Amino acid sequence: MQGFALNDIFKIGIGPSSSHTMGPMHAAQHFLSGLDVCHATEPYRIEVTLHGSLAATGEGHGTPGAITAGLMGHHYDTVTLVDIELAWEIAMNTGRLQSLAGHSIQFKPTDALHRDTQPLPNHPNGMTFKAWRSNEFIAEAQYFSVGGGMVEDQEGRALATGDLVDDETPFPYASMDQLVAWCDSEDLSIAQLQAKNEHLCLRSESRDAHAITLWQVMSECIDRGLSTEGELPGGLRVKRRAAALWRRLLSNSQGGKAPANQAQRAMVYAMAVNEENAAGGRLVTAPTNGAAGIVPAVLRAHLDEHRLNSAGINRHVSTFLRTATAIGSLFKMNASISGAEVGCQGEVGAAASMAAAGLTAVMGGSPRQIENAAEIAVEHCLGLTCDPIGGLVQVPCIERNGMGAVKAIAASDLALAGDGQFMISLDQVIDTVRETGKDMDSRYKETARGGLAIHGLKIPVTAVEC
To answer: CA 278 to CA 109: how far, in whole Å?
Structure first.
């Protein structure tokens, strides 16, 4: 493994879950694309089985609707919530889908969508697809949604839309120590090295088009969350709070200054993103949907603090997101960013680590200070469980993003106040995330069978409408 590209860690998609919504949609679309639909004279009959965490919390995460939309040919980077709802309604009412390419598919979820809470060996987020034409069984495939919208087949090959950086990567790394060593020997920042691994040469005055596109989607998501009120879907009747909290911060601001302090703003920004995620809105995985608020919140709060022209904003956005990508890739390579695999320490913990690293980079920190910030942020998320009440990405997930953003800022402040010398390395903490995840009981890993999921409101996951 040589590292990941920017669009492997940051994907434009739709809520409420990268692993339970975006991943299954991509898997369904991929399975459909592998059928010989061009020469089909009769409808295909398709059945799908969800395994492990997808079976346990898929209802609250929108998995059934996502798979249905995927079988119609929709992909998460362009699909809308209306598209998903329409696909679901058609499937439930008629049992017959018409794909975007014009092919007929027989799929009625009440009969053809099965649930098996036992995980498959490869990963807790497993799916089995089967297809028949007439009465002839013609295809079967298994997929695994491994976090952040990334999907692998049963051979472990990645199906994600972004290509993994190939073997010709000029500066391959599989650890933070290797990454820092490359930076030192080549006199490159972490962001510059990450860009060169994507075969990009970003000068300080150049425009990082993809990073800017990602930031635009992130920023628009924050703005929607800050201006939208009401209840979130799903049956828990959770009220949106970001808009009211933002108005309170604005009313307390003085003169032309940004409202409140950096940490307070970041907390509200993060909650705004994750309220949008819970409502099925468009956002960017960072590195997952469940933890999507932390990176954009810390970046927006940082930009609030500095009056930058467009070139300056581009430079800071690029440096922040590419540094965060390098750190996120280490979690993906050496532990996991899947709550179903290692708990929320792999989602909120990784996101806080990425945000702390990005903030330290744009504040002029050295590679070792960046490592220290990333290590501090995740160190204080170790053992964090994934226990969503009702199987919905709402409680405690939304507040957890707000707190993760505050941790990231504090971690960066601590690292910048130091000299780059520290006792625990980021590599050691990431190894600890992996080992802690292995030791963690499955009830606390996105199955909604333990922790707050059963002790919060005493609501069994099956009682909540999706």
So the answer is: 23
Which segments of 59-175 does DSSP mark as H helices, in order? 63-71, 81-94, 109-112
Cα–Cα distances (Å) from 383 to 297, 333, 378, 414, 441, in that order, read: 23, 19, 10, 22, 11
The CATH fold of domain 17-153:
60s Ribosomal Protein L30; Chain: A; (3.30.1330)
137 — phi, psi (to 5°)?
A: -75, 125
Name the average pLDDT for the chain.
Answer: 91
Residue 458 burial (C-beta neighbours within 10 Å; 0-12, 13-18, 19+): exposed
Residue-level length of the chain: 466
According to CATH, the topology of domain 176-463 is 2-methylcitrate dehydratase PrpD (1.10.4100)
Q: Where are the domains of the chain?
A: 17-153, 176-463
Q: Give pLDDT tens digits for 109-125.
A: 999 999 999 999 999 99
**Whole-Å CA distances, 116 to 27, 267, 408:** 17, 37, 37
Name the pLDDT band for 258 (thresholds 50, 70, 90).
low
Q: Compute φ and ψ for 392, nearest 5 degrees.
A: -105, 150
Question: Measuring CA to CA, how many Å separate 303 from each of 139, 316, 377?
Answer: 51, 8, 20
pTM beyond cutoff 0.85: yes
> Is the Cβ–Cβ distance between 336 and 347 less than 8 Å?
no
45 CB-near residues (< 8 Å, 6+ apart): 105, 106, 107, 112, 131, 132, 133
The residue behind tokens 């940051």 is 10
